[in-house]
Structure formats: structure tokens, C-alpha cells
């Protein structure tokens, strides 16, 4: 199941890049906060799943 962990980590970093990009573009703070929460959830789940199965 490390494939799912890898996908979650990649999506988390993709969303984290979106947070950076949206912050530089001065997008509404609510969008940035939602992306940051989604990124943290994906990264957390990915790393926890990676730890659990290895």
C-alpha cells in the first residue's frame, strides 16, 4: 500500500505549491486556508500510512 502513501504525499506537495502560488497572487485568504488544510491532511495521512506499512 505504499503506492497510496506516495500519491497522498505528492498531492499534499502539489496543494502546498498551490498555497504558495495563491499567496503570491493575493487570492482570498479563505481559499489559501482551505488549500493549506487540505495539504496538511494529505501530507499527514501520507506520512502516517508510509510509517505504518514499512
**Mean pLDDT, all residues:** 86
Oligomer: single chain
Count of extended strands: 0
Please state the overall shape, judged from the principal axes of the Cα atoms.
Answer: elongated
The separation of the N and C termini measures 9 Å
Proportion of residues in extended strands: under 5%
Order of helices and strands: HH
Structural class: mainly alpha
Largest sheet: none
Brief sketch in words of this structure:
This protein has about 55 residues and is mainly alpha-helical. It has one domain. It is about 90% helix and about 0% strand.
Summary keywords:
54 residues, mainly alpha
What does this structure look like?
- This protein is an all-alpha fold.
- The protein has one domain (2-53).
- Helix content is 89%, strand content 0%.
- It is built from two helices and no strands.
- α1 packs antiparallel against α2 (29-53).
- The longest helix has 25 residues, at 29-53.
- It is elongated and about 40 Å long.
- The chain starts with a helix and ends with a helix.
Amino acid at each position: 500500500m505504499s503506492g497510496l502513501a506516495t500519491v497522498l504525499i505528492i498531492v499534499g506537495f502539489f496543494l502546498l505549491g498551490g498555497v504558495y502560488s495563491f499567496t503570491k497572487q493575493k487570492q482570498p485568504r479563505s481559499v489559501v486556508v482551505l488549500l493549506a488544510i487540505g495539504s496538511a491532511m494529505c501530507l499527514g495521512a501520507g506520512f502516517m500510512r508510509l510509517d505504518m506499512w514499512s
